[in-house]
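[job 0412] stage=complex_fold ligand=cobalt (II) ion status=START
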Amino acid sequence: MIGRLNHVAIAVPDLARGTEVYRSALGARVSAPQAVPRFGVTVVFVELPNTKIELLEPLGESSPIRGFLEKNPGGGMHHVCYEVDDIIAARDQLKAQGARVLGDGEPKTGAHGKPVLFLHPKDFCGTLVELEQA
Ligand code: CO
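[job 0412] stage=complex_fold status=DONE, emitting structure tokens
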């Protein structure tokens, strides 16, 4: 069902500092920050030859990554995103197997303008999984 790894998302308390780590220490190409208010984050994209890393900083008081950063104050891996060809077919197949889809179960438009869904970490080896229709 799943295809390519689209990105790995890392929550950070300080996006400027995170950008500096990837740009200067690791020598990666990092995009300008982009606010995504509907997801409560500001994001930068780190472009790697085979995938992307997204650094996420909380945006707004009700940001869904605030709780994660309270538990992981220095930052940490927040989710992995896998591409699927048909997100509705993937969702229905996973739900039929008992997997939990977060939110209302309907795809939302992600930071790349494509439909995305999130799957409960307890059903996927302790990792929050994002599916994106490629
Ligand atoms: Co993501």
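Residues 15-25 form the longest helix (11 residues).
[job 0412] exit 0
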